[in-house]
Every structure is written in structure tokens, then in C-alpha cells.
Design brief:
Layout (H helix, E strand, L loop, with lengths): L7 H15 L28 H8 L4 E6 L13 H14 L5 E2 L22 H17 L4 E6 L5 H14 L3 E4 H16 L14 H10 L18 H11 L3 H10 L12 H4 L15 H25 L4
Parallel strand pairs: 1-2, 1-3, 3-4
Length: 319
Amino acid sequence: MRSKRPPLLLRIAACAIVTTAFADARTPAAAQTNPLWTEVEVKNYLPHMTVPEVQRFLERSDMVLIPVASLEQHGLHLPIGTDYINGVEQAKLIAQEVDVLVAPILLPGQSPYHMGFEGTITLPSTLVQEVYVEAVKSLINHGFKRFLIMNAHGGNRAITTFIVDRINQETAGIAVDLGAASAPFRDRAMAATAPVPDRTVLDRHGGTPETSSSLYLMPTLVDMEAAEPATVSMPDHLEAMLPEVLAGDPTALTVFLAEGLKDASTGKGTSSSEMSSTGVWGTRDPSEATLERGRTMTRVFVDAAVGFVRRWNEIRPPS
């Protein structure tokens, strides 16, 4: 049975109760006048920190974790900010276990292939790069030296690679792609605990993996009542390739993704609005997603990231 998203006022009230319970002396609950205020202070999260707190952090660590996200459609049941919110929440969880400064910089990324759905915001890849590199230069100026660039949106993969390379080539900073760097730690954990991917149906953008993660990371923003299977169509040659993609053929997947989900202006016929009735790129019902699956996937990634950071600190301690 699909869960129903609670009414807005109930969600606000629930968050307010949590806020009141955890409010500290610096922000007493009685002093709060904004009825929409729901945030609780999070350790090592730059937007919540004061200058003295950043100064004290620099005495312990020189490492910054920067999510690279997007503002784009995620079907009928997930919010436009899914990639941004999930990415930041994952980063916060990592920062509770190791000393990394979480510094979200920009909400939108590169998402031109989702522009057929209202609410998507896309920026040129060169502009996205420039914003992140300039932000890193600011942090270097304050004494930070090491940067974990975490891609929270598949379409930013190439951009993330360029950001990492530009930091390493153009600044005094040292950067790595957290997804790639943590992969050896993640692969071992996934083999033991993560769900085995279903090789029988297409289940990608906005599908059960992303919905499951969202149920764990941002539960009040998931509207499972609205989730429904998408009607998906694609060019004949991609349709013919799909069985090999689902079977795990790496060459087929590489070629499939080189053409799939591309801007309508390219003429490939593979933008999300051209291929999907709901914006979800998959035929599995998103309502099959589960909170437990999301918890497991998140835990695997967080543990892998923490493992990499600890190993990096062993090899090159903060200076």
C-alpha cells in the first residue's frame, strides 16, 4: 500500500517539535518567531557555522566535501531538488563520522535534457565549473587544502572530472572525485549488503533506487501517493540495445548512455520528455521503493567515503 505524504501543516508541526526538542541554548525555542523554521544545527556544515567555529575546524582538518548537484525534474513523486538535498544530506552524514567541512556551493547543475518538464533549471557546464573552482579558491585562501568533490547528479559526471582536474592543475589545492575514490571501499560493502540490481527492467532516473534513497534521506518530501509507472519509449536502435544493457554488457551500457538522456536540441530523440510520460527513466513502479533499501545504499556509500577519508588522513595527515 502506498504511503500518503502528510499535509504541509502537519509536516511543519512535526519538524517544529523536533526543532524544539533539540534546540540549544544559543537558539532557544522560545525565541523562534518564524513558523516555517525547521532546521537543527548540524556539525561541520558550513552554512550553520560561525567564523570562530570554522577557525577551530581548521585546527583539526583541512578537508572540504563539496556536493555537485542539480535542480531538475524527478517524476511525479520526487521534488525538483532531489539531487541537491540528497547529496547534501549524504555529505552531512559523512561529516558526523570524520572531520570534513560540508560546503554546498550551487543548487543547479547541467540538466538540459530535463527542460521538457517545468521547474528544471540548467546551467552551461563551463559556468558550473567556474563557480566551483572559484569557490574552492576562496576556501584555499582561508587555509583549506584538500577537497572531496562529490557528484550528486549523473549528468554532472564530466563536469566533476573537470572541476577536480582544474583544482589540481590551477590551484594549490588537492582534489579527488569522491565517487571514484571511495569505489574500492564501496564495492566490498555492496557485495555483502547492498540489494542486487534487477536486470530485467529499466530502472534509472527517478526510479526505485533514487526513490528508496529519498525515503531515507528526505522522507517528508517524497509523495508516494503520486508515484506511478512511466510509459517509456525510445529510438528503435536503443530499444534493441536495451536487453544487453540490462544484462550488464559494459559496451552496450556505454553506448546506450552516450545517446540516452540528451538535450532535445541534439535531435537524438532522447530527452526525458521525449522518452517518458512522467519524467522517470524506467518502467518499474517507483512505489516498489523501500526505506530499508535506501538506508542500506546510503550506509554503504557513507561507510565507503569515511573509509577513504580515514585512509587519506593516514597517508597524508592534515598539515
